[in-house]
Amino acid sequence: MPKHRTANKTSATPAALGFAMPAEWERHEATWLIWPHNQVDWPGKVDTVRWVYGEIVRKICPDELVRVLVNSKADEKLASHYLTRAGADASRVQFIHHPTNRGWTRDTGPIFVRRGVRGKTAIVHFHFNAWAKHDDWQKDRRVPDTAARLLGKRLFNAQYNGKDFVLEGGGIEVNGRGTLLTTEQCYLDPRVQVRNPGLGRQAIEQTLQRYLGVTNVFWLVAGPVGDDTHGHIDDICRFVNPKTVVLIKETNRKDVNYRPLAENWERIQDLRLEDGSRPEVVPLPMPEPLYFAGNRLPASYANFYITNAAVLVPTFNDPNDRIALGILGELFNDRPVTGLHAVDLVVGRGTVHCLSQQQPG
Questions:
Q1: pLDDT of 264-274, one tens digit each?
Q2: Res 6 pLDDT > 60
Q3: Residue ranges per domain, the chain?
Q4: Who's near 190: CB < 8 A, 6+ residues apart?
């Protein structure tokens, strides 16, 4: 790793300096993960989840680095044991000692922006607050600052009118050309899990444009039942290329998810991309309902993660696994699409995309 140094915080916005967030399918230097340790997230299943992590790392390693945050030397030793036995290439894994509260790297890890197609990268520090739901977020909030110091990257401090701006990586989806997707449920609900009290649609859109370099923000309605983030877009709708999105669809009219997901399908008819064109919208099925301790889980095939080597798609021992993999396999023709058993992962109310964060090349 580069020599530890003080992060270079700046008051200028990324967009003003020519930075923008690349699409996930663009070339990665690395994927960031947090080694699972919080028993509350996966009650009785943390050991099983660590084996799934081994499989995730094994599939990412062939074509990019994996940077893993661990709480201590003991955790590094434990993680090395699991990853080695899973067959991951240890030479492609870099451990970073940084205490964390939870393991949802998509939301707490560094969000990278880049200047131009092959220019320098920087990090935007959005200010995590545990989805405006939990009290233990102080360690997680420091991850972007630590990443900037370790990598020697410029660090942009996301603010609106002098106040820290809260955002999670799972709450946004970009095509790398100027369009960003998010949901009203997550960032505009005035009563439930309010990230930025007092900020409305216009203020949030302006902040996204300034710090992520997007020009076009589109709002879907809501996500599936069981999502404790209250509507993250990465369980709902994802870009697979600059002009195509997949959108989850529930066909069972008796399912509790039918109405909110149908509203998304009504809304997306109005989506226009940054150049004014209408995107192709491809439906992704939903698996049959999954429950843990009597609670509905947010199982979704949209929570896939695009790596350099493959597209990792959560699967749920469901007949629709094969259909979802087939749909995504037709859409991604530059890398293989592979299933990842996620029945245990989703007990934590997220799967492979929620656990990972890409660092662009």
A1: 999 999 999 99
A2: no
A3: 8-360
A4: none
**49 touches 348 (CB < 8 A):** yes
Domain 8-360 has CATH 3.20.20.80: no
DSSP string, 283-345: EEE-PPP-EETTEE----TT--EE-SS-EEEEE-SSTHHHHHHHHHHHH--SS-EEEEE-TTG
Stretch 129-152: mean pLDDT: 97
**Active-site positions?**
354
Percent of the chain residues past pLDDT 90, beyond the cut? 96
Strand order in the sheet with 337-341: 305-306, 311-315, 337-341
CA-CA-CA-CA dihedral for 343, 345, 349, 352, to nearest 10:
-110
What is the rounded average pLDDT of the residues 282-304? 97
pLDDT (mean) for 168-195: 98
The continuous run of DSSP H or E covering 124 comes out as: strand 121-125
- Asked if 274 contacts 179 with a C-beta cutoff of 8 angstroms, the reply is yes
At residue 246, the pLDDT reads: 98
Is 50 exceeded by the pLDDT of residue 4? no
| In contact, 31 and 14? CB cutoff 8 Å | no
Question: Would you say 308 and 28 are in contact if contact means Cβ atoms under 8 Å apart?
Answer: yes
